[in-house]
């Protein structure tokens, strides 16, 4: 009996079983077409793949001479493009979002194809909570890709064909009930160019936000001592399931030491709770529940020994009046979000490098690093910060 090493690929359609049969049939047909086209565009002959179809996707064993860069990068990029076109052209009922897992390991031929460790590990990756959560936390994305550590070392670390380690995030796939604990590498493709402003993000923020007025409509806001308790909106209900997924992803990112990802996901959790996609507005703070703020604060506080989180920030900002023209800049200064030397907001990579150097409650920043090349981000960030910190004044903690 022979033992061979092969690359294996698995794809699963998100929420497939919840669709009616007529939609499932259409999705299967479209997915089969897209896998054919993506593999052809990548120079991979799918006819040579040994495929084991399932209702919501398939698992495939690839030939021994597969080109790794073409598989890991080109195939996934082309598949993401095809999914984007399909999802823009079809109703939500037949929208296709994919979990994609890839691995390389040993197999042995059997009566029904192949068996062996490669397919076992692939199954664990494809069905892992971390991959499911990553896709759910990217509602505008089309797929989430997860590589095993062995394939990552072979395909990504050589840095050929446009693959770079920085495109992947190390995560842990932890299934204690199955005795499986391994590192894997997550990639969320982003399609399309991002509009870039003239000048650096820091310069644009400085020019656009220095004299930012209070969010419209302008109205007096009471300080904590003045706020009548009866006027406060009661928001004690738990977060929705979708928001809960963001919170779980924040915890996963913090456990892995991925502070920038946890920071971004914290912002996305607040936006999802308020039904926003860009930034919060002045009245959106009332939509942020006590339970959500507490869950996020618990995650950040636990990861930092109480140094970071909403409670630490609220204590730092105690007494600051959140009205007028310049409260945003005062928050930036008090929480260490801008340079003490020249008063400019720190670019996110520089912020990350300095965040460990003092006891300031720097996280969460409510920034979204993925949007900071967009001309809209300075206003989005400023109004999100003001709305959230105004809400924190009435947060029951």
UniProtKB/TrEMBL annotation:
Domain GUN4-like: residue ranges: 250-367
Region (Disordered): 358-377
Matches recorded under Pfam families: GUN4 (PF05419)
SUPFAM superfamilies for the chain: GUN4-like
InterPro entries, sorted: GUN4-like, GUN4-like_sf, Nucleotide_cyclase
Gene3D superfamilies for the chain: Nucleotide cyclase (3.30.70.1230)
Domain of life: Bacteria
Descriptive protein name: GUN4-like protein
